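Journal club prep — side note

Before the paper discussion, L.F. wants everyone to see what a predicted structure for a comparable chain looks like in token form. Sequence:
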Amino acid sequence: MNNQKCSPLLQKPRGRTRIIQCIYVVGFMDLFGVSMIIPLLSHHVKALGASPTVAGIVGSTYGILQLFSSTIVGSWSDVVGRQYSLLTCLLLSALGYGLLGMSTSITLFVLARIPVGLFKHSLSICRALLSDLVSESERPLVMGHFNAASSVGFILGPVVGGYLTEHDGGFYTSSFTCAVIFLTNAGLVWMLPWSETLILHNDNDSSNDTSKVCHDNNCSKSVRNGSRANSHHPVSAAETDPGSRAPGTHRGGLGWREVSLLRPAWRQLSSVGSKIYMVASSDMWDLFLMRLLMGIAIMLYHSNFSLAMEERFSLKPKVTGYLISYSSTLGALAGLLVGPVTQLYGKNMPALLLHSTVLTCSLIFLYAAAPSVWQVLLTATFFTISTTIGRTCITDLELHRGGAQASGTLIGAGQSVTAVGRILAPLLSGLTQEFSPCGPPSLGVVLALAAVGLMLIRIPKWDRKGMTKESQALSD
């Protein structure tokens, strides 16, 4: 009864589902286009006459740029809003892939990778946007579906890219096709009803605080825009009633289109810096360290998979390719399991993360000690499921601990941590592989055990959602 009395905004808007589905399409097309190019990059660099050393340096350019730009672009999306940041990332990524289609020398190839390395953060901003639109209880389910849609694109892309490569100038055709896909995504993002998105997000914040509002029999509350951190203050009836304000306007009377354009560059930089400092000085080091440890462990599992299968079981590359395709397909399907599994755990995300981490650690060990291909196939099946659930859990915990006001910054910081893992994993894999084909996964087991130990130490200080007592006190 109180819910009905408080506000009609607590009912789920129909338009929200349409917006979320459009974001799923953007995620699918994004990874579809990228995965057309990724398998062809090393061959193209070699065809341009690069030595293995130069090819390695050129290949690391993207990862290094992502390391430094992920947090900055994510924080920028919190400041200027998701629309402008997402459009910028998509258009500049399209520019980069277009330049890649014209790269006839190493210099042009490196120049083409710079805009992609700096601005290929469209998936991170999409996740932040989804976090803005849904409640905390719905977030794992929606994120799981988004990851599943993206994974399907990642599976299908290499098939199309491989087909195009068989023709003359196949790499250049694939690059231009990828650029067109990103331009199409930019058009789709531009046509989204962003004014409705802002209203839906404010409505969603209202529903998140329903219990507090209805207990007081008073519908005034703080409205937080996930793409712009606003100070907490009661809002008037005109602000809470969508019928009493013009579409596309928010608190203060400014249109949603005007807010980003009216902010000077120095104000944007100042806001970005303050948000990054807020995350850097927060008590979230444990989550970021767990992300790094598990990220490296998982990358070590994958790093020499093809070579290990050949050396340990004399498998042909074609058969190994089937195994990898099988794992990728399971990864896409596993995204659909995240919602039911979190419901099964009663949304106790720390417990779910701990159990998925223990399972991942055990499966890496079983893979390293596998006496037959069938055991590798069995471990790969459950490994894909456990890692998919673990990634969703840790992202959800980061967003819960950091708050909706900085979702872009938090997701970007997580991507920067993952980029550190991408830089370290190949080095560690090469060093351990000098001793044994099982060296990389064996080191992965050690790192995963360290992550489990860290969780056992830190979880008693968390609540069921992963919030530390210190963070709770600050938020209260």
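L.F.'s comment for the group: Residues 306 and 320 are 6 Å apart (CA to CA). Keep this in mind when we get to the figures.
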